[in-house]
Amino acid sequence: MTSSPAPMPPSEPLDRIQNSLIALVRRSVDPRANRRINEIAGTDIERSEATLVASLAQLGPIRMSALAEAVRLDISTVSRQISRLVSADLVERQTDPDDGRAYLLVLSGRGEDVSERLRQAKAAWITALLDDFSSDEQVALADLLERLTAAMHRYDQSVR
Fold first, then answer.
1. Which end of the chain is more exposed for a tag (fewer CB within 10 A), N or C?
2. Which 8-state DSSP code applies to residue 65?
3. Cα separation of 6 and 133, whole Å?
């Protein structure tokens, strides 16, 4: 029986970036990471729902269609998740003052509390991950990630 050769380590910067981004995304959506965040926060919320709670905390009162666009999900998916969050008393539907036929989504008091606990838990998790990074390296990483995110946004806008 012959063994397959060990994969060659990536040497080109683009290969390294691609491999690191893939690993980063996989690890950040790993259910174990979500369980750990929930343990720290003292909550029990699914990762997809936590994303909506965080988005509502950041965006404020917002229509369902705008929220779906902001989180880049189909409106039917967001609608199902929002229904669960409303049932869990984390989100409220309020009549849109500009259009009485529509409604805005807003965090309830309980939703604001859960959002803040999740934010603090994620901050603690990221702080632990960056423990070996100097302050200058943390600033550089933040700057580069913001640049990459902005470039991704510009790219998405250009291909619409």
1. N
2. H
3. 30
Domain boundaries, the chain: 15-129
Q: What is the phi/psi pair of residue 26, to 5°?
A: -60, -45
Contact 11, 18 (CB under 8 A): no
pLDDT tens for residues 17-69? 999 999 999 988 889 988 999 999 999 999 999 999 999 999 989 999 999 99
- Structurally, at CATH architecture level, domain 15-129 sits in Orthogonal Bundle (1.10)
Between CA 41 and CA 33 the distance in angstroms is: 12
Residue 118 CB neighbour total at 10 angstroms: 22
Secondary structure of residue 97 in the 3-state scheme: coil
Residue 106's H or E segment, with its range, is strand 99-107
Quick: pLDDT tens for 106-159. 999 999 999 999 999 999 999 999 999 999 999 999 999 999 999 998 998 888
Residue with tokens 């990074």: 133
